[in-house]
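As a warm-up, study this chain.
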Amino acid sequence: MRDYWNNLALREQRLLGLMGAVALFVLIFFLGIRPVMNAKADAQRAQEIAQRDLDTVKKGVPFLSGASSNANTGTQPFNRNSVMQMVQRNGLEMSRIQPESSGALKLWFEDARSPQIFKFISDTTSTYAAVVSSTQITRKNNGLVNVTITFRPAGA
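Now compare it with the structure written out below.
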């Protein structure tokens, strides 16, 4: 390799050196400097998204009056049919329902409006002997949400 370099004309050595320096600069810029420059904008975008999500949840809290408390659960029997009726009453479209251990039911909703979801949770827990054991809400860019909810029978 050294013999190859020494056999090059001075002009060719300078051109290869310049090309190496430009390549090094490009690598440093795109792998080091540019990510640091974009970090603030990325953080601001993430904060705005988190703030919108927090606002969505805060708007839904009034619909959940006592939904997670066993003291405020309804008395009607909790089963798959009761959940299906409540989904229809609230105008939701459920994409999937899956029974789990000890009578729990896991429900999936896609492209739903968050106020409808919060009202559904509140209505279900205040009408039927059920409590929410887990919920995952993912907000999409169009303002709709994808939701996974697990209800379990009260006292189970």
